[in-house]
Known about the structure:
0% of the residues lie in helices and 50% in strands.
Amino acid sequence: xxxxxxxxxxxxxxxxxxxxxxxxxxTYDTYCMGWFRQRPGKDREGLAVLWIGGATTSYADxxxxxxxxxxxxxxxxxxxxxxxxxxxxxxxxxxxxxLNSGCPTRPRDFGYWGQGTQxxxxx
Length: 123
């Protein structure tokens, strides 16, 4: 499984970005897709997960109401729409896939990762 993130960049506080995660050639019907981030000096944290096949989502409290995870099945893309960005959202953002049952938000439960895309929010 190869994952490719895109859409990162620099934005001012209050702005928005949409990250995309492409999983080319991925043929599983049901799996868990997640977005994570690693802020400077901090552990990687789960932000949002989506159960492919059932469309169930779950969000970390820190992003609930601001970030939205969605999927475009036709394009085989998963998005993370990020609104109301703040400087504390600055970090490297990753998408990841979990093939086992369940859709947790812990990074250790995901086996396949993209290379990450940088998000920088200035005040």
